[in-house]
Structure formats: C-alpha cells, structure tokens
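Worked Example 4.2. Consider the chain below.
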Amino acid sequence: MVREMVVLEDIPVVILAGGLGTRLREETETKPKPMVEIGGYRILWHIMKYYASFGSREFIICLGYKGERIKEFFLNYRNWHNSVTVDLMSGEIQCHDSRSGEPWTVHLLDTGLDTMTGGRIGRAADFLGARRFMATYGDGLANLDVEALLASHVACGRRATLTATRPPARFGGLEIDGECVKSFTEKPQIGEGWINGGFMVFEPSVKDLIGSDDTILERDPLETLSREGQLNAFRHDGFWQPMDTLRDIIFMRDLWDRGEAPWKRW
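Applying the procedure from the previous section yields the following structure tokens:
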C-alpha cells in the first residue's frame, strides 16, 4: 500500500475568531478575545506561531465581533514590529526591516457577527477549495503534536478528526498520605472524561454538512460524522488550556512570564 505523503505547509489552518467572549468582559469590552495578550503577544499570534512551528504557513481567520481590531493588527504587523519612516507630506511609509516578519499568508475573512462556528467555516469555502484543512478555536493553547494529529487523521481514513483532551481542574490537585501532602499540582488535567479540545482536521467533504450561517459545528456536522463512524479522536493527555475566564488569563500569563509555557516551541 502506498502511504500518503502529507506536508503541513500545504494544509490551511482555519481559526474561529468571531465569538463575543461574553465570559471575559473584563478584556473583551474593547477587543475580541483572540486579541487578549499573553506576554505582550496576542493569543491569536501564539496559536498561529504554534502551528507554524510544525510548518503551517497559510491561515484563514474567521472574523466576527470587533473583527476590525484583528484586521488592524495584521495590516500594520510589519510597521508595529519594525522601525518606520513617515513622509508627512506624501504619506509614504518606509519600513526598516530590523526584525524579520513571518512567512505566513493570512486571509482575514468577515464571517458575520452572529454566524455560528460551522457557518464561519462554510463562509471560508471559497478560500479552502477542495483541500484538506485544519481548524481550531481562537482562544485555546496546547502542546499537542500537530504532525502526529495529522498522521492519525490520514491513517484512520475518516472525514474528520478532533483532539480529545481532558479539561484542566479549577483548583490544585493534592496527593495525601495520612496528614502529609505527598504532591501538589497546580491546575492538573482532570483524570476522567474527554472533551473536544479543538485542533481539528477535516476532509473537504465536511463542508457539505454545513447548511447555513446558523450551523453550529459542534452539533449537526460533528454529531452526523460521529453517527456515521466518520469522526476520529486524537487523544491528547498533555497541556491544554482554554481562555474562558480572567483566572485562565492570569494562569497562562504566569506560565509565559516564568518561561514555562508548554506551547512555546520557537
């Protein structure tokens, strides 16, 4: 049997970045959740940088709530990261490449304020064409092996693969022997129960399951694929952290500041 050769550089990554972020109003009153900073860098940038460390080069960002802030970030990316000279008469801007940029192609796609997760992927159809693609949420980080995820998807031969992970506990975990604490783990991964952690891989035909902007990816499409035996689970027991609350942001910023961010591969 001929084994399929898969190159991550050839596979676009769809990032769902249009949600309202209502549980993080402390941060999202003025910006979309993917623009929340960790260590001076937006979490969206962290996600893209992580995929890029495995070879990804093309990103389709599905915008919604305050999407103009994300557009501004990328439209001015080179100017913000380099010294510039501005001619105030002509308006000409000269960028001095003191820092290198990123070798990425970034599609910034307006997908509507109220569009659901499946509908946002549906709106990206013209950019995806007939290609296999990866997708994830714009507010979560992990240290999973993206190459192994893709290999699992190819080997299983199913139409879709999601990353099954265990949610982090709200509190520190203790191992107690009598009255003595033998070990303490800050925010350990829960030992029971698997959830959809994002970091998904889809065959082009999955787009056929998206009927409209109202399609919720986690309902009809994934439920249908599951019933048909076409949904593969890539189990990830390592670090996985969503950014749902202010507590989550503080935790992730602390990891970064201490130089212990598990997702930092660059």
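The mean pLDDT is 89. Residues 246-257 form the longest helix (12 residues). Compare this with Example 4.1 before moving on.
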